[in-house]
Design goal:
The mean pLDDT is 95. The protein is of the alpha/beta class and 286 residues long. Helix 7 runs parallel beside helix 8. Helices cover 38% and strands 18% of the residues. The protein folds into 3 domains: 2-10 and 191-285, 3-Layer(aba) Sandwich (Cobalt-precorrin-4 Transmethylase, domain 1); 13-94, Rossmann fold (3-Layer(aba) Sandwich); 97-185, Cobalt-precorrin-4 Transmethylase, domain 1 (3-Layer(aba) Sandwich), CATH 3.40.1010.20. The longest helix has 20 residues, at 266-285. The N and C termini lie close together (12 Å). Strand 6 (114-118), helix 5 (124-130) and strand 7 form a beta-alpha-beta unit. The strands form 3 sheets. Strands 1-12-10-11 form a 4-stranded parallel beta sheet, sandwiched between helices. It has a 4-stranded parallel beta sheet with strand order 3-2-4-5, with helices on both faces. A 4-stranded parallel beta sheet has the order 7-6-8-9, sandwiched between helices.
Amino acid sequence: MKITLAQAMGTCFGVQDAIDLALDPEFKDRLTVVGQLVHNPQTTARLRANGVRIIERDQIDSITTAAVMVTAHGASDATKEQLRSRGFTVYDATCPLVIRLHKLARFLERLGYFPVVIGEASHVEVRGVIGNLANAAVVRDESDLAQLAGHARIGVVSQTTNRLEKVQKLVTAIRALPGVEDVRFIDTICAPVKERQQAIHQLLSEDIDLGIVIGGQNSANTRKLQELILDRGIEAHHIEDAAELDAAWFAGKHHVGITAGTSTPQDVIEAVHQRVRELAASASHA
């Protein structure tokens, strides 16, 4: 059984920078992160083991440390100001490419466009972007387009972890809406996400018949990688660690492709790769 690793996968620079900042020895037992720093369970466990406290955004009243950190997914200016007004020292671990998304959404608003963010309304990244805009809409799919009625000039950005094909399709649909005169789209899908999606297409071109996608279950970009494989009618499993691998998946398979989301640590990828090799060997001799 052949096993191929995606050419681009695993932790991106924005995630790694956030992790390195939170694990700075200066912060040991003195830092609270508001939300999950990154969407990965192993990283969350590592942070907690280093004395970092992690709370949800509705638990700000429970913060007992002087230092707080905004996650790699970002937050609205209002959220940061709320934390500062309570006397906390705020450290911002927002990924530079998410910061770019924030800036471009506000840029389109200043130009007089009605801002539209293509993405998941409940995702922390999208909530942060919308929180900085006076009036905006979030579009997940074509069923959400009705809320754009009455807006002739529309500015479109995307959640950084989206699939480019999906975003382009929705932009085309927005341009076709009655009464829409001008649509300005700025591509804000981040480069590491695109690289990992392109690497999936490379795996698919090599005729894999099983995909193993590694990352947190709440990681948007990881889910998109699995979708890319499933859309081609190929079996794909989204797992968080090697323990979730099932020997039955490998029966009768010839070529396994392995990839991982932008928040997945290298040691987790290596452990999964090793276990896949063991299961593949057993399946080949069965």
